[in-house]
Amino acid sequence: MKANIGNAVAEVRTVLEQVHALVPNATTSLVGYPLLFSRTQACSTLVSASQRVTLNDVAVYFEGKQREIALSRSASHVR
How many domains, the chain? Predict the structure, then answer.
C-alpha cells in the first residue's frame, strides 16, 4: 500500500511542478486528509477495528508525505 502512496506522492509533486510552471506567482495549498474513522468508536460494521486502524494510518502517512512535498517546495509557493 505504501508503494501506491509513493506513486501518488510522485504524481502530486509532478502536478505541483506543472502548476508552478504555468502560474509561477501563485501560491498552492495542499490540504491534508482527515482520519477516515474514529479512533475510539466503532462507526461501521463493514470495516473491522484493525481495518479502521490501517486506513487511518495510511491517511496519516499520506498526509505526512504531502507535508514533506510542501516543505521541500515552499520556495516554489507551496504550503
Answer: 1
- The pair phi, psi for residue 74, each rounded to 5°, is -60, -30
Please tell me whether the overall predicted TM-score, pTM, comes out greater than 0.85 for this model. Answer: no
Name which of 46, 29, 28 is nearest 37 in CA terms.
46
Domain span at residue 50 reads 2-76
**Nearest Cα to Cα of residue 4 among 78, 51, 65:** 65
pLDDT at site 22? 92
pLDDT tens track for 47-61: 788 888 888 888 888
Q: Exposure pattern of 36-54 as b/e (b: 16+ CB <10 Å)?
A: ebeeeeeeeeeeeeeebee
Question: How far is residue 3's CA from residue 16's CA, in Å, rounded to a whole number?
Answer: 20
